[in-house]
């Protein structure tokens, strides 16, 4: 039997690449020098796309594959997949929810702690001899007992809040509706009001056209000069220009960010700031989780081509 043709949009680790290559006829889009010419050449043989959360699949890519049946996303976020184009043609879409939730929450909380307690600066203080030369490291603000706001109490937001409760923070959250699985946490519908009542504002929303720049200038400034914004979702959820303006002017105290507009390139203004913690979009980046994500990507593709139910369908 001929193996179904798969367009692979970005690289995977070897432990995913080997079984993917064994099961499917894989076309490595990311290795092609001329992407348009490559799509024109292989497009008609493609029945599935294997992509990554941040890379997705554009309308142009989908249209270049007239026999496309399924897009399997290595990531929970599918905002970079053109869902309208998929709906028009009945193309199925899957993602990798659940398996990454706790790792993403762990990193978000670690980012808050690291940034609050100045851990990267403290590391340099030891390594560059400042400790010996200058003495005690400058004092930082306490974390426990403060107020956390969680913008988006989905799977990841819930795990963040659970962890924050363990650090003795009080918790409020914003979502479309109050959640019955969050009885001890305060529901505040308006993101500006949530921000006003938060020392730490966690952005944990699934990104979509509706949530674009939901963290706008008003929300950012409501967090204020003593507050911190932590983003482990997508850059598009925050108005990045407004964030940079507020960080530069001190209208926002600090930020801890795992995602950026145009990543992996980032706005050079970030690199000049001393009040940001910058991370390379690795919240799901543990061996255990990435292996589970890769497995789910393949299992969804295999289920589809075997005519079985998809494990984690989006569409
Ligand atoms: C990336 C992510 O997919 O889950 C998501 O939505 O953005 C991440 O897990 C990961 O960096 C692999 O590309």
In short:
It holds the Pfam family 2-Hacid_dh. This protein is α/β, with parallel strands linked by helices.
What are the SSEs and their pairings?
Blueprint: E1 5-8, H1 14-23, E2 25-28, H2 35-42, E3 48-52, H3 59-63, E4 70-74, H4 83-89, E5 92-94, H5 101-116, H6 119-127, H7 130-134, E6 147-151, H8 155-166, E7 170-174, E8 186-187, H9 191-196, E9 200-203, H10 217-223, E10 228-231, H11 240-249, E11 254-257, H12 268-271, E12 276-278, H13 287-305
Helix pairs in contact: 1-13, 5-8
Bound molecules: 2-keto-D-gluconic acid (8YV).
Report on the structure:
With 315 residues, the chain is α/β, with parallel strands linked by helices. It has two domains: 5-98 and 288-305, NAD(P)-binding Rossmann-like Domain (Rossmann fold, 3-Layer(aba) Sandwich); 101-278, Rossmann fold (3-Layer(aba) Sandwich). Helix content is 37%, strand content 15%. The chain is built from 13 helices and twelve strands. The strands form two sheets. Strands 8-7-6-9-10-11-12 form a seven-stranded parallel β-sheet. It has a five-stranded parallel β-sheet with strand order 2-1-3-4-5, sandwiched between helices. Helix 1 (14-23) runs parallel beside helix 13 (287-305). It is globular, with a radius of gyration of 21 Å. Residues 52-54, 74-77, 100, 281, 284 line the site of 2-keto-D-gluconic acid (8YV). 2-keto-D-gluconic acid (8YV) binds at residues 52-54, 74-77, 100, 281, 284.
